[in-house]
């Protein structure tokens, strides 16, 4: 049984597992009803509804405002697309994945108006008393759900494991339905329920955001792209200081790592790619910084008769010269680099190049240069049981040279690589656990920013420690 929220934080202590059998949401005949109002019609007979067992700690007689939706099918499969009812003439707003990595807002009034890879839907309230209704696709076991348009205004739920080796026929909690009179409170309360139900993530009120949230920050990406170098970073910070906007955070983005193409000798570091997408087929060669930062010599140390070199010397000089800079973060991809790790390189964990496979839903998202590049060249994937070695290698070095945290990019990649690793949920769970453990060890448990992460797999599995994420494309 999932843990009670009363044991984790007073901020999320409004629910306990009370085995409540009442709900404001019901399935009557072939209609889904919320507080006496129909919101989905023609619900198929194979759809199941289970009232949420989580009730108020203050008054357990209050009916639950949520229910879990599932279904039964005849055949076990790794992917199911099942209608849960027809939506007609009820305004909604939603969030859907328009790219593999990113979501955006979408509105409509009918089931046919939905987009593929929809992550959540809020149905509008009515003057006659219908409340706001949240439809939230979830993860269940090794499966992950999303919503999409069906035929004749049906709302379809797509449930997929990502691996033909992981199949099932029956589900009981692939969509959570929650009602409320305030859409903001509605979502917050629903997430408390799912926090208890899944037990795989933490809410913001349970976590401590990193100190960078109160700082003005500067990221090097738009200034340098992959040609970032110590002198440029120094001049950029100085320009901000001289202009009256001293940064408290400096984020050294892509361009500091040692990377190469597969056909290059492992002694060659090809970091100065300048053409869009040129770096994406590259793989990580080593955990340490490339020669641009490795060859930095501290002028301060020379003045004192010594020679301090490398990333550590640069970070030390930067913070000493510009005393407003309290935090320096650096970029890396979830799999190490865009193309993962290069196989058979001394000092790196075992790696296998995997060809990404896009799900039918992802194939309907907008064309993306990054996806095209990595599909063509594959990803050097560290096996999930060794993911801790990947992050320990990167993060221990970064901590040693004075880096305070990381921006982890290219996050929603694992779902394309999971065929032989137990499916998308199991592979993601292993990587996020390894990442979380490493952040706790090296960056005070919260020194991390997520990017290219807009999918419910990440939200439900990857946010035990992560508080911050890039919100838009």
TrEMBL record:
The lineage of its organism: Eukaryota, Viridiplantae, Streptophyta, Embryophyta, Tracheophyta. Transglycosidase operating by a ping-pong reaction mechanism. Involved in the synthesis of raffinose, a major soluble carbohydrate in seeds, roots and tubers. The keyword Cytoplasm does not apply. GO terms for molecular function: galactinol-sucrose galactosyltransferase activity. InterPro entries: GH, Glycosyl_hydrolases_36. Belongs to the glycosyl hydrolases 36 family. This is Galactinol--sucrose galactosyltransferase. It comes from Gossypium raimondii (Peruvian cotton). Pfam families: Raffinose_syn. It comes from the Eukaryota. The keyword Cytoplasm does not apply. Keywords: Carbohydrate metabolism. Signal peptide: none annotated. PANTHER family: GALACTINOL--SUCROSE GALACTOSYLTRANSFERASE 5-RELATED (PTHR31268:SF14), PTHR31268.
